[in-house]
Amino acid sequence: MISTLTEQDLNPCALLFVATFNAPPWSESWRVEDATQRLADFLATPRAHGVGLRAQDGELLGFAIGHLERSGVVDHFLLQEMCVRPARQRHGHGTALLEALADRLPGVHHWYLLTARDSDASVFYQKNGFRPAGRMAVFVRS
Q: d(Cα 59, Cα 82) in Å, to the nearest integer?
């Protein structure tokens, strides 16, 4: 079942986030409290939208969260975080989450996100209609 994310979903989402991104291929070092803060910040962003997918027994299988941004006269959607429980990936859950968000966000002109280049995530997003941005680049400053 897919439902809209609320503050009550933050802890299960943070636990899933840590389990997903601390495991290969990401192998990051997230702490639950930091993941909770990150996701709470996203959920508190004006015009935020998020969905979660739960199994019949209530287990959180995945979630996706981002926010709308106005650009001229149209809205764009920045997908900030998305993850599916590693053991449940490649079963259509990620696609279902994207479709559920799209159903809740009619009229969005463009969607965009950041992910690792040449990764399984990149392949997944391309299969779901995303493409590398033609004119845009990501710049970082440390």
A: 16
| Cβ pair 84, 62 in contact under 8 A | yes
pTM equals 0.91
Amino acid at 68: L
Q: For residue 47, give both structure tokens.
A: 């015009």
Residues β-bridged to residue 69: 76
pLDDT along the chain (142 residues), means of 10: 95 97 94 98 97 95 97 95 93 96 93 88 88 84 90
Domains of the chain listed by start with CATH number: 2-127 (3.40.630.30)
Q: Residue 42's pLDDT is what?
A: 97
Measure Cα distances from 106 to 15, 24, 94, 101, 128 in Å: 30, 34, 19, 9, 17
Number of Cβ atoms within 10 Å of the Cβ of 31: 11
